[in-house]
Amino acid sequence: MIVIAGVHTPEEHIQAIVEVIEKEGLQAHVSRGSDRTIIGLIGSVEPKLAEHLRQMKGVEDVVKISKSYKLASRDFHPENTVISIKGVNIGGGELVVMGGPCAVESAAQIDEIAGLVKAAGAQVLRGGAFKPRTGPYSFQGTGVEGLIMMAEAGQKHDLLTITEVMTPEYVDICAEYADILQVGTRNMQNFDLLRKLGTCGKPVLLKRGFSSTYDEFLNAAEYILAGGNPNVMLCERGIRTFETYTRNTLDLSAIPVLQQLSHLPVISDPSHGTGRRELVVPMTKASVAAGADGLIIEMHTDPDNSMTGDGVQSLFPDQFADLLKDLELLAPAIGKTFHTPSAVS
Ligand code: PEP
Ligand code: MN
């Protein structure tokens, strides 16, 4: 349920509403928007309480919300969430690009790629140190050493970093070295991991499970939010369909749907969403046109020899740089900004 109060409702009236809710043993989440203040209730609400709240000073309406997720919903939080990390704002008007290899392979590799990611104008360096591989005999990642290599490359090239965390035990160490923690598609419903991320103190990029509905996806985000972490990004990375030509089917509808249902920033991953290099450029542009707040794109200097199978979907550095130049032109057409470094002559 939500209580709607006018934007000019004095603070003491809002506080009085919150007190009444908390006295009943329920949680109250206050969200101040530009045209109204929303007080969201979590817990089961007796009709008597709803009626009492309706009579209170400053209350314009009391509305029942039937969705199972609350904190993730736009009903609870009408304004977009903007996640600010060291001067980069995700979910605001600025398009955010995360680029880099599927996996951190060596210090030299991640350093070289970080330089190219920065030069192209991206704000975030991606790279997995812990890799979720389909088979147990495949390369599993460089682990903690990889985390350190990536943190050094990010620092040297002035980039934020994002890396995947697969188990609750590794959340603290990943949070120590990376700016954003990624939950992979296979772990979207690893509820112990999601709960742990609720208290990790770092923003989380949650990838959609490849067979998950929007409702399941938003409920997974709800676990992190309910644990006390408000900084969650939703990432569409393709779903499994009957089509075999592409690795997954990038669900472009997810972008506007999630933005309608939720206030959380929506990021698109056209690399895993297609699995084919030649489709990454058009699907990146399509994602931006559909309103994505950001992109996460694989790029490799030697994709044929990449240590994971994701070389086939990784852009070459010049393709990545050209794509970002195009995004600089495309972004303003849909009300966003994106700037590549101006050429030095
Ligand atoms: C990745 O980002 O390299 C990755 C493994 O992604 P996903 O979980 O979407 O497959
Ligand atoms: Mn990958």
Automatic annotation (TrEMBL):
Membrane as UniProt keyword: no
A Pfam family that the UniProt record links to this protein: DAHP_synth_1
Gene3D superfamilies xref list: Aldolase class I, Phospho-2-dehydro-3-deoxyheptonate aldolase, domain 1
Residue span, DAHP synthetase I/KDSA domain: 81-322
Keyword set, alphabetical order: Transferase
Stretches assigned to the DAHP synthase ferredoxin-like domain: 1-67
Gene Ontology MF terms in the entry: 3-deoxy-7-phosphoheptulonate synthase activity
UniProt-listed Enzyme Commission number(s): 2.5.1.54
Enzyme class: transferase
InterPro entries for this protein: Aldolase_TIM, Class-I_DAHP_synthase, DAHP1/KDSA, DAHP_snth_FXD, DAHP_syn_2
Database matches in SUPFAM superfamilies: Aldolase
Cell cycle recorded as keyword: no
NCBIfam families attached to this UniProt entry: DAHP_synth_Bsub, PRK08673.1, PRK12595.1
Entry protein name: 3-deoxy-7-phosphoheptulonate synthase
Organism: Paenibacillus ottowii
Gene: aroF
